[in-house]
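Sample intake sheet
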Amino acid sequence: MNYNTQPYFDIQHDNQHIVTIKPFADAIADEQGILDRLQQFVALVTAILHEKEVRGLIYTCPLNNKQTDYLSLFDQVSSGRFDPETLLKTTLQALQWKSQNKPIVSIFDDECTGIGLATMLWSDYRIAGPGIKMGFPESKFGLFTGFGATICLPQLVGSVQALNLLTQPGLIPGQTALESGLLNEVAADFDLCLLQAKNWILTNSKQSVSAAYSTMPSAEFEAACSAILKKTRGLLPGSNAVVELLKTAPSLSLTGSVTAETSRYSQVLRAPEPLHMIRTLHEGIRKAQHPGRIKSLGDYKVKKIGVLGAGMMGSGIAYEAAKAGIAVVLKDVTIAQAEQGKAYSTKLCDKRLAQGQMSGIQQQELLSNIQPSAQVADLVGADLIIEAVFEDLELKAEVTRQSLPYLAENGFFASNTTSLPITALADVTDRPERFIGMHFFSPVDRMSLVEIICGTQTDHITLQKAIAVTLRLGKIPIVVHDGPGFFTSRIFFHYLLEAITMLLEGVPAIQIEEEAIQAGFAVGPLAVLDEISLELMVHVYDQFPTLHNSQRRAYAHLNKMIENGRKGRKSGHGFYDYDPAFGTKTIWRNPALPTSEGSWSADIIRKRLLHVMALDSYRCLEEGILEETIDGDIGSILGVGYAAHTGGVFGHIDLTTLPIFMEECQSFLPFGEQWEIPQSLRKLADRNFTFYTGLDSNWTGKQSLN
């Protein structure tokens, strides 16, 4: 039979009757779909294996894409072109190859993830070229990898390791995969991979291939499952499915296992959470980081940055800029303080060096990019000066005035502030159009978001330059407009406010913290307050032009705690008591507060914490602080740890449905002014408006309100 007539795969027969299959370089599975491509591949391999003269078979990943094309996948699901019955038959047919007496080898010639990696597990033997990484990143989007992955992987690496690989999004290098049993060999190049594959086929038979591990449940596996579900809080459909499938597969036949996996895979693909997570954490971030956003700048490139303030934020910004190859002047009041700021970069480099993530030469190059200084004149010629001093309007104004004369002719100035108004800060300059906010998050080296804040006079070129610098640093930009607290800080203050409000109502502190975590927040609100310090929270409230009654009650409670020496973690006492000797903390039961334990619904507490941030996010949209819903969703998750499974604040409203969301917010109105509902939102609820349809936003600004 002439298999070379098909258009997608290059098929080679050698004189030893070994067949090698590779996809053509230009054969991308976009229009026909992932499932259609794999169905053709499996049918092709099956037919070849039935040829009597064929001694063995070698293949590379049948999907050319390095990563799963999620947009294509969800498009197929939403349009009804993803057929579970075809998936079932295709997977079952592929897994039945192992019952035939012809050895099959898969070769990794490039990074391989998700569905592509699942197809490589259909072989008897796996070989990778140098520097290859692999893994299952779908888990960070609430998905899991089907196509036999939950069946094959436990047999190769054991149930515990399979669970970890399928529910943790990080990629592993070839050597780690080799040690775990996921790979059988690692070769120096593709030609050597091919040679080793053919040698293995010629010297081995199916009888030499056996499962490395028993997949029967064990105490270690049960503990690992519990740990995963505790970590995800049971909020990610994909992780839930993996746990269920790995537990039940050992008691099922091959057909039963494939049927169970296919059923759960189809259910997870149709669950709302993965779509919301893909929209925000994959497609939203991809668009935010797309270089096309700054095409009007041409070949603009920052060569020198000045950073004012060598504290934790300034030092972190200096490190990120130096890592990007930009010359940095890190200025503080004294050279000793500036040197201490550079020492932070040395510490980070030492850690990366010890972990093998950086060479000694790279460390030297990075550190040589940072010039500690106490002299403002050293800033001369800076393309950008970023002010990162304490959150005080007068202090920021003073350092801005001192440094502006040294800015390059076409340079711009940025303030790293969490809440101070950019327009007011820009008033101290004679060029407010070249002044912008760039709100980095702590710790800067680990937090990927930068909130870019336009003042009322910030021009488009300055905005474009701020985005360009953000992208150069490898960060994710969102763009918002000026207003008290901007966006991320503003909605975060509502999260903290609602926790204090509930505390004053008599909700036990421990219950507030526990339900926040169960709702999907990264950290409980009271623990956050202790970390940032209660004094700083009060200072932020002092910057607000007015406070409503709920804010005043929270303000008074925080001040009372501060007066009693409970200032937060650094003081050893706050909403928690801290034991530095043991590194532990215990929740403080304030005897002055009312208590009504057992009378508070867990569901209501979770909804109040989630809804209050989403409601104020809508106000930001209505007021023009936000222009795009996706910026709100990205900012809420990456900036302040909003529940990721919702896809962000607007994703949460859509998950709840706007009519129900509004009805529940209305029921919370007795708890404070933070629950007042804009009239425009009521009108949208009457229309059953959704902020998104699939991956596309329905918000068109004020037009959406008409």
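Comment: The mean pLDDT is 93. The first helix runs from residue 34 to 49.
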